[in-house]
Amino acid sequence: PVAARLEVPLGAIARVPGLGEAVRATPVAMVDGPVHLPLWAPRIATCEVQQALGLPERPERASLGLASEVWLDPADLPALIADVRLENLRLSTGTQDVTTAGTVRLSAFARHVELEPVALLVAGTRFETTGEIVLRPGWQPADPMTALVTDLRLRADGEIPTELATPYLVGGVARGNLMLQARAAGPPDALRAAAHIEGPEVSLYWPTPYATRIEAPAVDLLYANGELAIENGHLRLNGGDVQLSGKRYADGFLELHTSFAGLAYRLDYGVAARLSGDLDFALDPTSRGLLAGRVVLERGLLDRDLDLEREVLPRFLAPVQTTGTGTHVLDTIDMDVS
Asked: Is pTM beyond 0.85 here?
């Protein structure tokens, strides 16, 4: 059930540009005051909303209780007064449940909107976040939404279980927690942000097509002037070391540099290989991407009997596979790797 009430004094409408003249011309007594909207919903579930709208079900689900009161002046919307409380918030990915430690509260007063500190709990971990935004005086719905906020400040700290990503790893399995520290401050058009992410106990594993294990990832992300810098990135890949850095520019151009050494892979026919090298990836949003660099096979070992008739010859005698009409993201990337 949902309960709501809307109180709209005529005096509030009389202050709206374009409507005030017509309202003030009516021969009625006008009561002044803000528009008042109280709303109460003890339980809202996304699965029920999707069913009511005829949308397909998804494994991700959310449920919560909502209680809010909002007072606003139609002539000065950023000056609203609001108190919004979310109770019993629960998010489910299909494998893990995320809950909150207490009430999630959002308040607005004097053109400031504040998210009080809230803690998210999942699988024994705790993730805390808080934030505040400042609204532009005199903003109207006809103005661009980007002009509504003049300043914002966000903070996030805690651990995130990588198991939450398992349903999206296409056959992969995730273990361990990522530790995140993030800060953001400034107006939207000059926002500056920094984040440090690391997971010394994290392990991501894909058994096919070639067994791949990523461990202990860490990276620093810096955002300023519309550009995102990737610094101090490193991880363990199949027992080897990988260093990563890069940048995404304001025009969308992306460049990444990776150097690696000691990567152990078991390839076709059971060949045990050890790889090292350097790769550079560039992606221009207006054209094709380019992957260039060198990969060195430091060592290759085949320690088993090889059946030429059943394993090798079919590779040369098999019919040529023709290209279909479908496209793949790799079709947009050129390669220059030696």
From this structure: no
Q: Which residues pair with 301 in a beta bridge?
A: 272
Question: How many other CB atoms are found less than 10 A from the CB of residue 129?
Answer: 16
The distance from CA 235 to its chain's CA centroid, rounded to whole angstroms, is 21
Instruction: For residues 158 and 177, give the distance between their C-alpha atoms in angstroms, rounded to a whole number.
Output: 10
Running DSSP on this structure, what letter comes out for residue 309? I
Closest residue by Cα to residue 7 from 30, 37, 29: 37
Judged on CB neighbours under 10 Å (0-12, 13-18, 19+), 161 is buried
d(CA 311, CA 305): 11
Residue 49 belongs to what H/E stretch? helix 46-53
SS3 category, 30:
coil
Find tokens 């809307």 and name the residue. 6
- Specify whether the CB–CB gap between 34 and 6 falls below 8 A: no
CA nearest neighbour of 104 among 123, 88, 85: 85
Q: What is the dihedral of CA 158, 161, 164, 169, to 10 degrees?
A: 120
Which pair of structure tokens corresponds to residue 24?
A: 């003030």
Separation between Cα atoms, residue 128 and residue 221, nearest integer Å: 19
Tell me which H or E stretch contains 251. Answer: none
Spacing of C-alpha 197 from chain mean position: 14
For tokens 């999707």, name the residue: 50
Cα(184)–Cα(119) distance, integer angstroms? 18
**What residues pair up with 149 in beta bridges, in sequence order?**
135
Grouped pLDDT means (10 residues each) for the chain, 338 residues: 85 70 66 88 90 85 94 90 95 85 94 95 93 93 90 96 88 94 94 97 93 96 96 96 96 96 87 92 90 89 70 65 57 70
Other Cβ atoms closer than 10 A to 338: 8
